[in-house]
Amino acid sequence: MIFEICADSYDAVVLAEKYKVKRVELCSALSLGGLTPSLGLIEKCAEINDVEIHVMIRHKEGDFVYSSDDIEIMESDIINAKKAGAKGVVFGCLNTANEIDIKQNKLLYKLSRSLGLEVTFHRAFDFCASPQESLEELINIGFDRLLSSGQKNTAEEGIPLLNDLVHLSNSRIQIMAGSGVNSINALSIAETNVVALHFTSHLKSSGSNNLGMGFHHQQDELKIKSIIELF
After folding, report:
1. Does residue 181 contact residue 155 with C-beta atoms inside 8 Å?
2. Which of 22, 61, 154, 184 qualifies as a cystine partner to 180, CB 3.0-4.6 A?
């Protein structure tokens, strides 16, 4: 089983290296589903050679519908992520009908590939109106992997669709399960034969959100250790 940590800090990548985690999806603003991290953070995390850094390309919160101006921003972020040392990028473009935006995804995919980056389609997929059709479209574009919770709040709840996605993909794209993965449900989710498990590495501080500036996160080493030791 491949493990991927969803992280927003250098400390998380250090922890990933300690437990020989293959990949980190590097983001900012995890409470918003993850946004594009700073170049400084990407560069610092990429110094850790034993962990692949895959950068979230999502500069605004809310949905996954993008204008032509948004796409230009995302193209710049992909180029800069490569320059900063990223191994891959993570993005997903939908139209207003919650369908895969073929044109936009192809554009970003081709740019990423030209730079030698791996490409993951993120949980925008979990909003798609027709998951089976959307899966085929992502395969045809050429994405390396798909991150999904099976279109439920948690991957455990989404096991039925994850099973279907693995079967339908027939190894043409890697299916990675994420959202709510922990040591209690990891083995059950793994029984779907997904290639990888994706989970966060932190605990939210119980301290107050002073002046609306957000919460401190602390790394949950026990969570990482307890999941990995199951396999």
Report:
1. yes
2. 154
CATH assignment at residue 105:
3.20.20.380
* 203 φ, ψ (degrees, to nearest 5): -115, 140
- Above 90 in pLDDT, residue 29? no
Q: Cα–Cα distances in Å, from 205 out to 24, 128, 226?
A: 22, 33, 20
Give the residues across from 94 on adjacent strands: 65, 100
- What amino acid is encoded at 143 in this protein? F
Residue 152 confidence (pLDDT): 96
Task: Calculate the CA dihedral of residues 183, 29, 34, 162 and round it to 10 degrees.
Answer: 30
Of the candidates 158, 164, 202, the residue with the CA atom closest to the CA atom of residue 177: 158
Give the helix, strand, coil percentages of the chain, each rounded to 5.
40, 20, 40
Inter-residue contact 24 to 15 (CB < 8 Å):
no
Count of Cβ atoms closer than 10 Å to residue 83 Cβ: 12
Domain carrying residue 16: 2-228
Alpha-carbon gap, residue 21 to 197, rounded angstroms: 11
User: Can you tell me the distance from the alpha carbon of 35 to that of 23, in angstroms, rounded to the nearest whole number?
Assistant: 17
In the chain, the number of structural domains is: 1
Kind and range of the H or E run holding 173? none
Residues in a beta bridge with 54:
25, 88
**Spatial separation of the C-alpha atoms in residues 94 and 125, rounded to whole Å:** 8
pLDDT tens digits along 40-76: 999 999 999 999 999 999 999 989 999 999 999 999 9
Query: Is the pLDDT score of 211 beyond 70?
Result: no
